[in-house]
Amino acid sequence: MAERIGDYMKLHGVKFIRGSVPTNIVLGENGKKKVTWKLGNEEHSDEFDTILLAIGRTADTKNMGLE
Q1: Nearest C-alpha neighbor of 21 from the set 57, 53, 58
Q2: Cα 51 from Cα 22, distance rounded (Å)
Q3: Contact 22/36 with Cβ under 8 angstroms?
């Protein structure tokens, strides 16, 4: 489901930067957030209206009696 939602959001202009680690967020005078992040060994930055930070998790269903 998450992939389907992500695909839908991309089609509507949401930019995903997967696998990155944010290192700094600064609110600019224009109201946008300047975000600096690391992706591998490279540092990047850009300005955004909105920032969503999400971390993945592994489903823990083995003790739920789903069998």
Answers
A1: 53
A2: 11
A3: yes
Element (H, E) at 8: helix 2-11
pLDDT digits (tens, 9 = 90+) for 14-39: 988 988 999 999 999 999 999 999 99
Which of these, 61, 66, 56, 62, lies nearest to 3 by C-alpha position?
56
Question: How far is residue 34's CA from residue 18's CA, in Å, rounded to a whole number?
Answer: 17
Spatial contact of 53 and 22, defined as CB atoms under 8 Å apart: yes
Tokens of 33: 């957030």
Position 57 pLDDT exceeds 80: no
Q: What are phi and psi of 9, to 5 degrees?
A: -65, -40
| pTM of the predicted structure, to 2 decimals | 0.69
